[in-house]
Every structure is written in structure tokens, then in C-alpha cells.
């Protein structure tokens, strides 16, 4: 069995069958030989697999990956193993996705730049496990999280554009729109979508003198929150403060 298959199978086993109550974030802060001696590798098989594949020594790369894994797993401990098992098997057996859930999560977690993003991914995965979003939406949301700067994500989640004048394109019924300048760094993240401007063409009264027969008028190009952006915001809004990701 290849190393990737070993990791994938081990992560799926951990997520589907293990009691994750011992998977605490604190473990990530004290990763030493004591961690192994205390039996944590038995409680959380994926940790033992990563350590085993590291063989004689664990380098900084493995430690950072383990930290991201622990933060990810810790976020799921309130969801029963039964529920986790059912939802993961549902995707693996559906035939809709070529990559098994365990392997896909490894790719996603590995791409996270740090443990904070890994924890956010876990919050979104929890939303999938509890059926607040479907698996395709989880994958789309994860891709957005991978690409975005964390501070931009926090701003998007915590700001209240419905109430604050800084998030309002004040023109008739467009109070939920932002201009491209206002959207700034999130304009191309997938959290928002472009809105086609209203364009009106009317005759120029004295076009013979101006050489322009028509006058073209229109509103400024704007963006509004996308469907997946709204779901990400709704899921993360309370979680960021609760998990001290601020």
C-alpha cells in the first residue's frame, strides 16, 4: 500500500470510527516524545500513521502537518462517530466523486497555510457532517478558504454590510451591493459575484451638434455576496469568535 493510501485510510478510520474526545488542540502545542508515549497514537490513528511514515525522525514539515491535523480533528469531536461514519460512507459510495473523502481531506489540509485555516476547514466540514451544506459546497468553500488571506476572510465574516455604511452601494434597492473598490481583496475570491450594471440608452436631443446620436447611462459595476459566500459567512460567523480565530 502506498504512503498516500495508508494516510488516506488512516484518516478515514480516525474520522469514521474513533472517539475524538482526546483530540485536543492543546496536543498540537506540546508535540514531544511524551505525546507518543501517552498513547495518543492509539486514540488518533492518523497521528500514529504520520509518525510511522516519518520513521526515525519527525521534521518540522511533519510537525506542522500534524498540528494542522490535530486542529482539524479537534473541531469534529462533538459530532458522533456514527454520524461521521454515515456521512463519509455516503460520499465514498455515491460514485459522484473519484477521490475518497479521506484522501481529499489530506490534500485540503496540506494546502492550508497554517493551523488556523485547517480549523476553519474543519468547521466547514462539520457543517457538511451535520447536513448544513452538501459535500460539493464543502469542496467549493474549502477552495475559497485555501485561496483567501485570513484577514480578508475575517473581515468578510464579521462585518455587517446590512447595517454599516461602508458596505453599501447606496442606489435605490442596491443596499446589499459593493462597488469593486469597496469589495477590495474579496472581489475575486468567490465570496461575492459580479452584478451586471443597469444600462439605459436614450436619444441625444441635439446629436447633430455633438455627433453623438445616443446617450448611454448606467450604474457602476458592483458585486453582491454569492450563494456560497452567504453559507460560509453564516457558518463561520459565530465559530470564529468561539474558537478564538479573530
What does this structure look like?
The structure is a single chain. This protein has 246 residues and is mainly α. Helix 1 runs antiparallel to helix 5 (45-54), helix 1 crosses helix 7 and helix 6 (60-74) packs parallel to helix 9 (115-129). The chain contains 14 helices and 5 strands. It starts with a helix and ends with a helix. It has 2 domains: 3-147, no CATH class; 165-227, no CATH class. 56% of the residues lie in helices and 9% in strands. The radius of gyration is 24 Å and the shape is elongated.
What does the secondary structure layout of this molecule look like, with pairings?
Elements (H helix, E strand, L loop, with lengths): L2 H15 L8 H4 L3 H5 L2 H4 L1 H10 L5 H15 L6 H12 L8 H11 L3 H15 L5 H13 L2 H9 L18 E3 H4 L8 E4 L3 E5 L3 H4 L3 E5 L3 E4 L1 H16 L4
Antiparallel strand pairs: 1-5, 2-5, 3-4
What is shown here, in short?
The chain is mainly alpha-helical.
Mean pLDDT: 80
Poorly predicted regions: 167-172
Helix content: 55-70%
Helix count equals: 14
Tally the beta strands: 5
Question: What oligomeric arrangement do these chains adopt?
Answer: single chain
Number of domains: 2
Amino acid at each position: 500500500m502506498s504512503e498516500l493510501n495508508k494516510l488516506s485510510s488512516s484518516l478515514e478510520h480516525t474520522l469514521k470510527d474513533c472517539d475524538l474526545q482526546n483530540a485536543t488542540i492543546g496536543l498540537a502545542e506540546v508535540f514531544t516524545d511524551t505525546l507518543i508515549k501517552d498513547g495518543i497514537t492509539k486514540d488518533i490513528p492518523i497521528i500514529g500513521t504520520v509518525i510511522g511514515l516519518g520513521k526515525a525522525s519527525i521534521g518540522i514539515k511533519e510537525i506542522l502537518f500534524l498540528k494542522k491535523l490535530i486542529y482539524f480533528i479537534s473541531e469534529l469531536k462533538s459530532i458522533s462517530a456514527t454520524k461521521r461514519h454515515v456521512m463519509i460512507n455516503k460520499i465514498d459510495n455515491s460514485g459522484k466523486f473519484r477521490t475518497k473523502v479521506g484522501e481529499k481531506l489530506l490534500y485540503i489540509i496540506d494546502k492550508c497555510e497554517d493551523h488556523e485555516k485547517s480549523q476553519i476547514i474543519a468547521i466547514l466540514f462539520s457543517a457538511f457532517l451535520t447536513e448544513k451544506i452538501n459535500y460539493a459546497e464543502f469542496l467549493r468553500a474549502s477552495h475559497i478558504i485555501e485561496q483567501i488571506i485570513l484577514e480578508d476572510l475575517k473581515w468578510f465574516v464579521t462585518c455587517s454590510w446590512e447595517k454599516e455604511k461602508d458596505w453599501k452601494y447606496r442606489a435605490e434597492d442596491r443596499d446589499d451591493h459593493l462597488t469593486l473598490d469597496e469589495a477590495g481583496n474579496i472581489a475575486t475570491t468567490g465570496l461575492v459575484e459580479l452584478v451586471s450594471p443597469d444600462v439605459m440608452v436614450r436619444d441625444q436631443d441635439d446629436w447633430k451638434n455633438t455627433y453623438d446620436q445616443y446617450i448611454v447611462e448606467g450604474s457602476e459595476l458592483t458585486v453582491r455576496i454569492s450563494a456560497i459566500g452567504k453559507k460560509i459567512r453564516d457558518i463561520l460567523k459565530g465559530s470564529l469568535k468561539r474558537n478564538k480565530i479573530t
